[in-house]
Specification:
Strand content: 15-25%
Helix content: 25-40%
Number of strands: 26
Structural class: alpha+beta
Shape: globular
Largest sheet: 8 strands, mixed
Radius of gyration: 27 Å
Length: 624
């Protein structure tokens, strides 16, 4: 593996790591592009950069200019499909944000082939006060070309060790005692001897003196992974005894499992929990019992190892990469007030990997949602770098300390940026208030925030994949159980009693977010529904379609709906694993007659005044 020096700013030649066209971007030597040949849909003025796309590609290959590298590596497909001649490159520069303080003025650079401004690569630069401030944003001087490198693992271990030693909020969630929680089964991966087979160990044996002393707190890691189409080794009734006695040779396991064992050993963790090897897959009784405990398994794990970029168990955790693709850099601007810019230091922060984790293959799997939210610490192994998330910190290899980027709820101290910020903030406050008064203003505010966070979560969850649609409510049962404990509320088929009746106004997301194509046959009013009953028709969980709630839609955000309808009765009967046996809802309120609403007419909205209330209907009717 090779290591790459990153472009730190220098005191004598601060922009020496940039090619000549990019140096002109920052020193204000801007030459307008030919107005007759180039027009822009954005209305911004464009300026000359490289004379051709081939020149830019050569710069990336030979000079390794960081700005040009980003233009190509993060640009659209058109960058790679263009012929290498007669396509000049242009740039736009804009002030992206102006605040009262100078440090709030940022720079946005758009690079694109001429006449293809809609395919521009946008690069956001943050202005900082000084050279020393710029240095704080920059990554360590060396990153290696594969995420299995000693430096990558050292980053992961450093984050975990710091969290275990200093993060009270994280430790409070996971700490165990001599009578604390342990999974029914764990894999003993024998940290000190890589030649030993991996053995399955029952909880009763884990508490015995022959194994680690549970009284001092037994540590185990969990694995989040996609099963995918690859053949996954499984715990079955017929091989359970063999896995306990003879075990499994590591080289017989799928790549993702092997990599997870390697990571856990590097973190000095002896035990590992993997769903396919710790739950008996052909036992209905074992599956129902263990699936009901899955949320608790992830909550009490020392760290969750996430195969974030792998679509199946053969994908693994580790990837080759070009270190320059994740490196932040600094530049000194001497534009001198041109078009509103200021002189000074600007830094590029590659934080898109953290922001985009939710779109990775692993996080398109429904079961993983509660794993992400309930695990107090997660190591995401992505295709470009290792990312750390816990309740008090967030960072990646390129930018180990991202606390300066976070938005913090100062009342709770909870990290707000990242995935599901509203839910994470609410959970942090509710944990702090767990033994206090539920009548306090802080508790009530957190409860309302939880409802909003739930709506955001379900919007994503309802669009995730499930092998068994009957698991729709089972896969979030751990999350439901925790929130019921923290709030004293009751979840009724995926809807919260305390948020009724407003939460009944959920609607189907009829069109795909990416393609705009209809998800259902609107002409014939055909909607994919549950084949085998799993939820009542008034619950979003009854459909195999993505949904959004009133909060997500930005409507019905007040509680006036409660003045028009009253919940007379709302009950559900749940099995231990979170699936439903029965459900009932009775409402009292005014009724109106809807003369005609066309299911295929999504823009149609019919309003009917009934006393002081208005009933709005759009996109067809749901019947029960």
């Amino acid at each position: 593996m090779t290591a790459v020096e990153h472009p730190y700013p220098g005191s004598k030649e601060p922009n020496s790591s940039f090619c000549e066209p990019c140096q002109r971007v920052f020193n204000g030597d801007w030459t307008p592009a030919d107005a007759e040949e180039h027009s822009t849909n954005s209305g911004l003025s464009s300026y000359q950069h490289h004379v051709s796309v081939s020149a830019l590609r050569a710069c990336v290959r030979d000079y390794r200019c960081p700005l040009c590298f980003l233009a190509v590596s993060q640009g659209s497909k058109s960058w790679h499909d263009l012929p290498e001649d007669d396509w000049p490159v242009v740039f736009y520069a804009v002030v992206t944000h102006a605040a009262a303080e100078d440090s709030g003025i940022n720079m946005g650079i758009r690079l694109c082939p001429m006449n293809l401004d809609t395919d521009a690569t946008y690069i956001a630069l943050r202005r900082v006060d000084s050279f020393s401030a710029a240095q704080k944003f920059l990554c360590p001087p060396k990153l290696e070309s594969n995420t299995s490198s000693p430096a990558s693992i050292a980053f992961a271990k450093s984050k975990l060790d710091t969290c275990l030693a200093k993060h009270d909020r994280c430790v409070q969630v996971t700490e165990t005692s001599s009578t604390g929680f342990l999974p029914t089964r764990l894999l003993d991966i024998r940290c000190t001897d890589s030649d030993q087979p991996v053995r399955l160990v029952e909880k009763s044996r884990l508490r015995s003196p022959a194994f680690a002393s549970f009284g001092t707190g037994l540590q185990y890691a969990t694995l989040s992974h996609c099963w995918g189409g690859a053949q996954v080794v499984r715990l079955m009734i017929h091989n359970k005894s063999a896995l306990e006695t003879s075990g499994l040779q590591i080289d017989s396991l799928p790549k993702t499992f092997r990599h997870a064992i390697s990571v856990a050993r590097s973190l000095d963790i002896r035990y590992l929990w993997i769903d396919s090897l710790c739950i008996v897959q052909d036992s209905v009784a074992d599956w129902e019992r263990e699936s009901s405990l899955m949320g608790t398994v992830y909550t009490h794990g020392t760290v969750n190892i996430a195969a974030t970029s792998s679509s199946d168990s053969a994908g693994g955790l580790f990837y080759d990469r070009d270190p320059l693709s994740i490196a932040p850099f600094a530049a000194h601007s001497s534009i001198g007030g041109h078009k509103g810019f200021l002189n000074g230091w600007y830094v590029y922060e590659n934080i898109s990997r953290v922001r985009d984790i939710g779109q990775e293959p692993l996080n398109r799997r429904a079961w993983v949602l509660q794993e992400r939210l309930l695990s107090p610490r997660t190591l995401h192994f992505t295709s470009t770098e290792v990312v750390w998330q816990c309740l008090e910190d967030m960072g990646c290899e390129a930018m180990p300390d991202q606390r300066h980027l976070e938005t913090t709820d100062y009342e709770s101290g909870a990290v707000q940026r990242g995935d599901y910020p509203a839910m994470k903030s609410a959970m942090a406050v509710l944990r702090d208030q767990q033994y206090g008064s539920r009548a306090s203003a802080v508790f009530e505010s957190a409860r309302v925030t939880m409802y909003k966070g739930w709506d955001q979560m379900i919007r994503h969850y309802s669009d995730c994949g499930l092998t068994m649609q009957s698991d729709k409510l089972v896969a979030i049962s751990g999350m439901v159980g925790l929130l019921e404990t923290l709030t004293g509320d009751e979840c009724l088929a995926g809807l919260w009693r305390g948020n009724m009746p407003g939460c009944l106004l959920w609607t189907v997301r009829w069109q795909d977010d990416d393609t705009g194509a209809n998800r259902v046959d609107l002409v014939n009013n055909k909607c994919p529904k549950q084949v085998e009953w799993r939820a009542p028709s008034w619950s979003w969980a009854s459909l195999n379609l993505p949904v959004e709630s009133p909060q997500t839609l930005g409507v019905y955000t007040d509680r006036r709906t409660a003045e028009q309808a009253t919940v007379i009765e709302a009950t559900v009967q749940r099995k231990p694993n979170g699936s439903l046996k029965d459900a009932k809802l009775v409402l009292r309120g005014p009724l109106v007659q809807i003369d005609s609403v066309q299911a295929g007419s999504l823009e149609t909205r019919t309003d009917h005044d009934v006393g002081t209330c208005t009933l709005s209907v759009a996109g067809g009717l749901r019947t029960t």
